[in-house]
Amino acid sequence: MAVTVNGVEKKSPAKKAGIKAGDILVAINGNEIIDVLDYRFYQNEKDPSVEIIRKNKNRIIRVKKEEEQELGLEFCDYLMDEKRSCKNKCIFCFIDQLPPNMRETLYFKDDDSRLSFLFGNYITLTNLTEHEISRIIKLHISPVNISVHTTNPELRCEMMNNRFAGDTLSIIKRFDDAGIKMNFQLVLVPGYNDGQELERSLKELSEYKNALSIASVPVGLTRFREGLTEIEPFCEQTAKAVIEITEKIAASNLEKYGEPRVFAADEFYLKAKMAMPKPEDYGEYNQLDNGVGMWSLFEKEAHEALQSLSSPEKPRRVSAVTGVAAEPLIKSVVDKANLKWHNLDADVYSIKNDFFGEQITVAGLVTGQDIINQLKNKDIAGEILIPSNMLRFEGDLFLDNVSVGKVEEELGVKVTVTGVGGYDFVEALRGGENNG
Fold first, then answer.
1. What's the rounded Cα separation, in Å, for the pair 156 and 192?
2. Do residue 396 and residue 360 come from a single domain?
3. 252 and 147 share a domain?
4. Average pLDDT over residues 221-232
5. Within this chain, do residues 333 and 257 fall inside the same structural domain, yes or no?
6. Buried b vs exposed e over 241-263: b needs ≥16 C-beta within 10 Å?
7. According to the model, what pLDDT value does residue 110 have?
8. Burial, 85: exposed, middle or buried (Cβ in 10 Å; 0-12, 13-18, 19+)?
9. Containing domain of residue 309, as a range?
10. CA–CA separation, 127 and 346 (whole Å)
11. With CB atoms counted within 10 Å of each terminal CB, which end of the chain scores lower, N or C?
């Protein structure tokens, strides 16, 4: 499938070679270009031959460039093709639990292998064609992030409401045999894939020689579940059971493979009221986006920042805003900062999730309207800090479409968006290089 060139970067190799907007890209070094993965892989070669169509005539243009240098072509869509939507109807799907009248893009369920490689998204394998499987192996696209949930084929079909979901587990072995590194996630639903089923899944996934990590993540339940499968949230007892299974297999893996490979999300430790593992227990932190090791890494980075950064140059008052789950962590860091820097007066406000429901406690799902409603009568500082994961990629809107500017207007404060790491947070507490 040929792709139309939408633009060419100035002074790029493609521009110098004479490729123009409107040209149709057909192939690079004889390799057909179907989408962004083909383009990104084959453009890396030195002095490639680029086949285009211009005015209905095929042309071969030799482009002079170094190996790994970008060609400089631009396309209307980043993927150069439509996103692929999910074919499953998982009983735990978070998107099915969203309220009406949110941004249209939030309701799209992607299950696209290209997004897995480019942005770390997780795929279920049920959407992959034979062409895509072969391409991943041929191009050695790695790592691939896979939503497994269970290695029991029948249970996987039941949980994902897809009769082919069990069969696609065989793709994992094909990837493993081809040397494709993989990260796995299991969204755990009490009474379904925890207990003995969890133990089975963790053991079987651990045996793949190219398994980088396996994360157990608790199901997220909003208050908008009418008509959906009845699911109970994890409690202290069931969360402890997940941790016991995970840590037992991690210890076995450490002895067998020299690495734990399996991890439980931070949320399980919070629900179980157990101490978090140490930073060194998480290896390369392959599952941070799944909330695995975030607490430990944040604490470590915050400690390093407090050791290395000097106190604010002038008195500073600021309020940190977070979700319920992270409040103890954020408050601990803020208390240490207040103690060390006597001219800092910082406090912490945790926001209960009225929008999605009280079972949702993570900071990344806090909405603008909940911040406004819960802080409008509080004695907050003239500046509040919020983590960037509360906002969409552009950094302007919360999940409920409330803007940062609206929060500032309603509360009469300045909103400062911080990075999600501990060092970034402490630096923002201090006021940055210019001290606010």
1. 10
2. yes
3. yes
4. 95
5. no
6. bbbebbbebbebbeeeeeebbbb
7. 76
8. exposed
9. 297-430
10. 48
11. N
Separation in Å, CA 313 to CA 261, 310, 413, 430 = 45, 8, 21, 9
Residue showing tokens 């406690």: 361
The pTM for the full model equals: 0.86
Residue 436 in this model has a pLDDT that exceeds 50: no
8 phi and psi angles, rounded to 5 deg: -130, 130
Residues 118-123: what's their mean pLDDT? 77
The answer to whether 309 and 299 are in contact (CB under 8 A) is no
* Tokens 């103690």 -> residue: 339
Q: Which of 292, 326, 343 is the last residue of a domain?
A: 292
Same structural domain for residues 35 and 67?
Answer: yes
CB 271 within 8 A of CB 236: yes
Within-domain flag for 213: yes
Beta strand 414-418 with 383-387 is parallel
**Which residue carries 């249970």 as its tokens?**
155
Q: Would 67 be classed as within a structural domain?
A: yes
Per-residue pLDDT, 435: 47
Residues 282, 311, single domain; the answer is: no
Name the nearest CA neighbour of 386 among 415, 353, 343: 415
Angle, helix 422-430 to helix 294-308, in steps of 10 degrees: 40
Question: With bands split at pLDDT 50, 70 and 90, how would you rate the model's confidence at 113?
Answer: low
For residue 332, tell me if it sits in a domain: yes
Query: Is 167 inside a domain boundary?
Result: yes
Lowest mean pLDDT across 53-57, 182-186, 201-205, 258-262: 53-57
Q: List, in sequence order, the alpha helices (H) in 55-126.
A: 113-119
CA separation, residue 397 to residues 211, 392, 403 (Å)? 36, 6, 4
Helix (H, G, I), strand (E, B) or coil at 256: helix
Of 292, 307, 337, at which residue does a domain stop? 292
Number of domains in the chain: 3
Where does the pLDDT of residue 378 fall: very low under 50, low under 70, confident under 90, or very high at 90 and above? very high
Q: Is the pLDDT of residue 284 over 50?
A: yes
Q: What is the mean pLDDT of the chain?
A: 92
- Closest alpha carbon to 318 in 385, 379, 370, 376: 385
Q: Is the peptide bond before 143 cis (omega within 30 degrees of 0)?
A: yes
Query: How far apart are alpha carbons 434 and 436 in whole angstroms?
Result: 6
